[in-house]
Amino acid sequence: MAEHPLVTIIIPNYNYGRYLDECLASAVGQTYDRLQVIFIDNCSTDDSYEIAMTYRQIYKDRILVYRNDENIGGSRNSLKGNMLMDVASEYHIYLSSDDAFHPTLVSRCMDIMTGHPGVGSVLVHREDVDEHGVVTELLPFYNANCVIPSVRQMEVFMMAGIGVSTQCFRKKAAEHRGHVHDFKFDIAGDWYSNFCMATEGDMGYIKDPLCRYRSHSCNVTSAAVKDMTNVLEHFMLVHAFSDIADRLGHASVSARLPAAVAKLGSMCLRYASQLLHAGDHPAAQRYLDLAPALMPELTGNETWLGLRDCVRLAPVDCLNQLQKIELKAPQSRLVSYDPPPGSLIL
Amino acid sequence: MYWYGTCIKITWVVLAVVLARLPSSAADVKVTVTVPSIRFQSPQIVFPIAESVIVKNPLVTIIIPASQCEAQLPRCLKAALEQDYDNLQIWAVDNFSTDHTYDVLMDLEKHYRNRLFVARLYSRFNGYGLNQRILGMTNPRSLYLQVLQPSQLLEPGCVSQSLAVLESEVAVKYVTAHVDTLASDGTVRVSPSAFPEDCVIPGAERMLDLLLDRGPRLFASLYRSEMYGRGYGEAYVFDAYLEMFHQFIAASMGEVGYLRRTQCLVRESPAEVLPDPAQSMKVLVERYVLIQAFCTIARRIGKDEVAGQLPQAVQRLGAQCRALAARFLGAGDPEAAQRCEFLGMAFGGGEPLAPEEEPENAPARGRA
Lengths: 346, 368
Known about the structure:
- The complex is a heterodimer.
- Chain A is of the alpha/beta class.
- Chain A folds into three domains: 7-100, Spore Coat Polysaccharide Biosynthesis Protein SpsA, Chain A; 102-218, Spore Coat Polysaccharide Biosynthesis Protein SpsA, Chain A; 222-328, no CATH class.
- Helix content of chain A is 47%, strand content 18%.
- Chain A contains 14 helices and eleven strands.
- In chain A, helix 9 (229-248) runs antiparallel to helix 11 (257-277).
- By secondary structure, chain B is α/β, with parallel strands linked by helices.
- Chain B has three domains: 2-45; 52-267, Alpha-Beta Complex (Spore Coat Polysaccharide Biosynthesis Protein SpsA, Chain A), CATH 3.90.550; 277-355.
- Chain B is built from 13 helices and eleven strands.
- Chain B has helices at 2-21, 24-27, 50-53, 73-81, 101-111, 127-137, 158-168, 203-212, 242-251, 277-300, 304-307, 310-330, 334-346; strands at 60-66, 88-95, 116-121, 144-147, 152-154, 172-182, 188-189, 199-201, 220-224, 255-267, 365-366.
- In chain B, helix 8 (203-212) packs antiparallel against helix 9 (242-251), helix 10 runs antiparallel to helix 12 and helix 12 (310-330) packs antiparallel against helix 13 (334-346).
- The longest helix of chain B is centred in the last third of the chain and has 24 residues, at 277-300.
- Chains A and B meet through helix 9 and helix 12 of A and helix 6, helix 10 and helix 13 of B.
């Protein structure tokens, strides 16, 4: 029997020493046999490096530990991980140093990769865990383990990002996607990179929550929510998708642009109601103004009119009124989708 | 035996290196080791001294992204090709045009083989992707760089005058020159100059102008090559505002030169008529994200006086949206008008735009 291909897990870290035991143990404890873990400490001020070194002493053949003399920023640190990878490694997976993998994650990903040579990346569903270790289960995006054809998946990405915390990449596809890399996105970086991967090959999806994603109470995106850059960056993002799809000749993808923009309009309503809950009425008002700019039909929409009334109410009345509206317009996704036609169910 | 000999050789080399590295005062100390002087003399390394690295006649590159512009292109190219500066390369790249753009370029290339370099892309790229590709093609030895649109006509002497400023003022990162408009009937519309004379503008001031969208909107700018494209290191990529983003980044690193004499004519775009509604939404949103990016960068480099102007900048953009909405309404496109109106409200609902403000701050130091 041929040997399994080498897989690299890249773990960039900055000051997550308190979660590191769980993370590193899950990485070195994978059931997959040919594995290399690369840990790069970005000049942490806590005991991260020492913890990593204790693992290094035990698992000398599995883990490499590096340390930067100065902090080089998150994105450059991740890139450094990519550069330090063994040239023989055809596959790589990023693991955030506050997250953890299920022991079978790598072997499950590799089953798809080796069984389906057209697959460029595999996305794995996640479960959330907060700082105190309380686990929240989430609905998977697709209701089956599947392989989705490239163009079908691009169409899906026009309408929605898939919020996973880890992806397994085939190196060939990851290197090749450079030719579409003409954009950069601050907030929606993952969504964009997943789209780019989908242009290079089919996408695998594992619906079992094999990755544990740490959610932190101080939300880094909250500033972006307040100044609307999240929605407006998404607006630029879907335009970029349509641009790339046009260049590659996938008219069915770019045809979804108007619908994608309109969907952003309805997302504005969600943000508005979130901000009303948080008591930030001016920001909510901005979203309510933005919504019909993206989706003109909204001016006759009940929810929109209702929320507009809420903004003018006093805080207590506002919350009461909000509850009535929200029953009709749920905040989050309530179903898992069927994989698009043409997908292979595993 | 072989190894023994090698070891001795290595020892001598190490000694020679150590001695060569001793500072001159220490070298005066009597050292009792005799060094075979012929074979192991410290090598005479001549470091390039300042004078020898000054390039007398630096290479300047003008890049021209060309797409669907067979009519405008010949005049634009001729004006660039006939600049009086001799060490000049012009890179014109046909961006997947379906008209005769490429043929026009090929005809001209025959006559200007030493100056004009033509390439063709077989898939259409937009602002950032296009620039990246052209930059990749150009000569890496080029010290100065200008991006020229096919609608721009350089005046004679433009390159050499901008270059003179960059060569004499080290702190100046790019030179921006006054631009007038060329109407479709061939008449030149003179625009008011931003400053009364040629001058050097402090970077922070130019950053403020770009943030608040005031001062000259049209510019012909010659950059130091290493300053152009610095913005790509940031987490942002812009399309319609690519040039503005470059200017902002370059201004954040030094000063900006300004030439008052008209150095370039820009053809009036035939669409003083209304732009495409979907396109204008895209541009307005990009402008908003650009403003946010400007402030993030300014804050990071400690220019709080620039970052503090964020609300005003957004307010101005809001007012621009509403002005555009009024134009759409006048043109009988209520849906586009409504979109722009709401976008304007989301951006702070500014009052309709006040008459064009003149740049408020005079340059801190002027230069004849």
